[in-house]
Design brief:
single chain; two-stranded antiparallel ribbon; 318 residues; 4 strands; binds heme C; Cytochrome Bc1 Complex, Chain D, domain 2; mainly alpha
């Protein structure tokens, strides 16, 4: 066994086996264990030195043993030592694939003609080449049948179906990853469980200013059709997540609530619409007309350009 591999293969083999086992069994997070724990690095260095030491010691022992043998024993020893297992299967396969005739049989192949002493061998095609050629024929036949007779998907169609599949997977993912929602993507949650969690969140955080029935106090009335910062799920989500106008007292709840929770409480807030609170606060803001874009979706610069052009049109009209 020892003679099977030379030491320059044996040492790295043993070393990397130990290294691999350590990496496999040590839980070191993203980084490799020997970087995460410097002690492992030290250990590996020691392992490496010990393997080399073992090699050196065994070689030395072998040498001493060898020197103590008589001549006949030395030759026998050497003969057995170098009778290492040859990779006969590999070399046979290689010979078969290359398919050359041994030198002593070349006279069977030699052709008659002779150009100034240069003669030609009539070798068979090398089997590796021939089998490769057959393989391409089979490949070609299958390809032709698949794409030109049975109209298999070409790469555009494959791309499209991959896109469609990805879209489905994305939807699936979004269903499980509820916290991916923001004010651009939020939709009204109709699920009773979501509404009741929304209610719990509202009662825990919001009633101090908006009252349990949404009638309003420090904060505006949430049951009427009037909104200061815009109604509809997207605006409500945005107000809750980003907060109200400076100094008004409505903080940005994204600090303390998860996106999924803000979506639930937003949906709950919308269910308050039309309730008749005990002490309703007077309406503030404007009546909300649905389907209006979220204000922030139009960047301020663009808004200024639009306003400026409206003003200039107005100035031009006689
Ligand atoms: C400290 C008091 C306070 C708390 C607590 C509070 N709000 Fe408000 N809220 C306000 C004030 C004040 C405004 C008005 C902001 C403005 O005018 O810019 C407001 C505005 C709003 C609006 C927009 C109303 C409109 O007319 O546009 C919504 C929606 C809202 N709050 C929901 C909530 C929710 C949900 C919670 C709990 C997570 C909450 N608020 C907690 C004070 C509060």
């Amino acid at each position: 066994m020892r003679n099977l591999f030379p030491s320059y293969i044996r040492v790295p083999l043993v070393f990397f086996t130990i290294f691999g086992l350590i990496e496999f069994f040590m839980d070191s997070g993203e980084k490799p264990a020997f970087i995460e724990y410097p002690i492992i690095m030290l250990f590996l260095v020691l392992v490496f030195l010990i393997i080399i030491a073992i090699e050196v010691i065994i070689a030395a022992l072998e040498n001493i043993m060898f020197q103590s043998l008589d001549e006949a024993a030395k030759t026998r020893y050497l003969a057995s030592k170098y009778k290492t297992i040859k990779f006969t299967w590999l070399s046979n396969t290689y010979k078969k694939l290359v398919g050359t005739k041994p030198l002593e049989k070349e006279h069977e192949l030699i052709l008659d003609h002779n150009y100034d002493g240069i003669r030609e061998l009539d070798n068979d095609l090398p089997p590796w080449w021939l089998y490769g050629f057959y393989a391409t024929i089979i490949f070609g036949a299958i390809y032709l049948a698949r794409f030109h007779i049975f109209n298999g998907d070409n790469q555009y169609e494959e791309l499209e179906s991959a896109y469609a599949q990805a879209k489905i997977e994305l939807e699936e993912y979004k269903k499980t990853a509820k916290d991916l929602v923001d004010y651009n993507t939020v939709t009204v949650l109709a699920d009773a469980a979501d509404i009741s969690s929304g209610k719990t969140i509202f009662e825990a955080n919001c009633v101090a200013c908006h009252m349990a029935d949404g009638g309003g106090g420090i904060g505006p009335n949430l049951t009427d059709k009037y909104w200061i910062l815009g109604g509809g799920i997207k605006n409500v989500f945005r107000t809750i997540s980003e907060g109200g106008r400076d100094g008004k007292g409505m903080i940005a709840w994204k600090q303390s609530l998860k996106p999924s929770e803000m979506a639930q409480v937003s949906s709950y807030v919308l269910t308050l619409q039309g309730n008749t609170p005990a002490k309703p606060k007077d309406p503030e803001g404007d009546i909300w007309v649905a389907e209006e874009a979220v204000k922030s979706e139009i960047p301020t610069e663009a808004m200024e350009v639009i306003t400026d052009s409206i003003i200039s049109i107005e100035n031009e009209t006689p």
